[in-house]
Amino acid sequence: MNEGLLTQTYPADARRDRRDPVLSLENINVSFDGFRALTSLSFQIGVGELRCVIGPNGAGKTTLMDVITGKTRPQSGRAIYDQQTDLTRLSPTQIARAGIGRKFQKPTVFEALTVFENLELALKTDKSVWACLRNKLTSEQRDRIDAMLSTLRLSHERHRAAGMLSHGQKQFLEIGMLLVQEPHLLLLDEPAAGMTDAETAYTAELFRSLAGKHSLMVVEHDMGFVETIADHVTVLHQGQVLAEGSLREVQANEQVIEVYLGR
Ligand SMILES: Nc1ncnc2c1ncn2[C@@H]1O[C@H](COP(=O)(O)OP(=O)(O)OP(=O)(O)O)[C@@H](O)[C@H]1O
Question: What span, in angstroms and rounded, lies between the C-alpha atoms of 158 and 48?
Fold first, then answer.
């Protein structure tokens, strides 16, 4: 693993420790036409932590990510980011600019552009596609992309159209597109879905190396993957926190076994 090239520790984090929350969800309520998707949901993620959020279908995991990224406005509650900013008052663009990156389950790369160009676009987010590709990269930016390609194990694919990559490679590329933007908090929705076993193992290694430098929230159904990455697991059920703790602890929780893991 190419240490150090990814992103530096977020500067303000040097003065903090893991007990300081990077995200503090406080009594979040979301209803859709009377249906309660999130009910008084409260929990915290510490600075530099890698948190896994698990739970059965319909538990509210996607809705939770939608609230954090400003896509869904809760009826009540607060989502305090970095101990000062209430995300429920910001637009999705403001939230992205504040350093929160999100990866959706399905990779959304620009298929017609090369792997390198996809990373180039991600690095220069505030211009149109064509203006961005016409503008020359600085040597520092080029080095960053090269380093990222190496981390993603995509150096040999740099000139290939992204549409020609395997599903797993597209997932890696999209993770790289987030990382070149140096996010503070990364939200990842089933990042290992559809990956081969080797790709899944490498994703786990990559995420472990990111924790500490970034804070990560990973929504995942694959318990084997959760086991290899999680410090701490939050189990959602019917829009509320059902259990929280190490994977061992939540796996031994009777209610979690009942509603999610099965006997
Ligand atoms: N826009 C919407 N309108 C109505 N109901 C919605 C909307 N979005 C989500 N829901 C409902 O809210 C509940 C929570 O959905 P959500 O997608 O957050 O669950 P999830 O935990 O992500 O599930 P999965 O694991 O299947 O992705 C579900 O019952 C869903 O049908």
Answer: 30
- What's the CATH class of domain 11-106+184-261? alpha beta
Mean pLDDT of 248-261: 90
> Which residue's alpha carbon is nearest to atom 2 within ligand 1?
32
Q: d(Cα 173, Cα 171) in Å, to the nearest integer?
A: 5
Name all residues whose Cβ lies below 6 A of ligand 1.
Answer: 32, 35, 37, 55, 57-63
For residue 3, is pLDDT > 50? no
Strand pairing report for 215-219 and 240-245:
unpaired
d(CA 249, CA 263): 15
Q: Which atom of ligand 1 is nearest to the CA of 33?
A: 4
Judged by DSSP in three states, 98 sits in coil
C-alpha 191 – ligand 1 centre gap (Å): 18
215-227 confidence digits (pLDDT tens) = 999 999 888 899 9
* Protein residue with least CA distance to atom 16, ligand 1: 60
ipTM: 0.94
**Mutation test residue for ligand 1: of 25, 35, 66, the one with most atoms within 8 Å of CB:** 35
241, β-bridge pairs: 236
What digits encode the pLDDT tens for the residues 39-52? 999 999 999 999 99
Across the strands, what pairs with 235? 54, 243
Where are the chain's structural domains?
A: 11-106+184-261
Instruction: Ligand 1 pocket test: pick from 28, 33, 57, 63 the residue with the most ligand atoms within 8 Å of its Cβ.
Output: 63
Quote the distance between the C-alpha of residue 75 and its chain's center: 24
